[in-house]
Amino acid sequence: MKAIERTHAHDRHPTASLAGEVERLRAQNAMLLAAIASANAAMSAAPSWHEMHRTAQKMLRTALNEAGTGSRPHLPQRRLA
């Protein structure tokens, strides 16, 4: 908004100067709308991902119980240098 006010204050023909600003804002708006659509798609896929994770956990617990170890396997320790 400040750019528009500055243009009006210093330019007698603001329409020529504002065309670039309007195009920049339209491009930015398109990017933001694409980001919102992408986030919306990711959020709608989240419930199915959680369900797959729960199913995998149940299968792992069942396999561990059948193998005789009711606890998680111990992962190797990472060494930080």
Task: Describe this structure in a few short sentences.
The chain is mainly alpha-helical. It has helices at residues 2-10, 14-67. The longest helix has 54 residues, at 14-67.
**Helix-strand pattern, N to C?**
HH
Strand content: under 5%
Distance between the termini: 51 Å
Shape: elongated
- Going by helix content, strand content and strand pairing, the class is mainly alpha
Descriptive keywords:
81 residues; mainly alpha; 78% helix; elongated
Polypeptide structure, described:
Helix 1 (2-10) runs antiparallel to helix 2. The chain is built from two helices and no strands. The chain has a domain at 20-46. The model has no long low-confidence stretch (mean pLDDT 78). It is an all-alpha fold.
Topology:
Layout: H1 2-10, H2 14-67
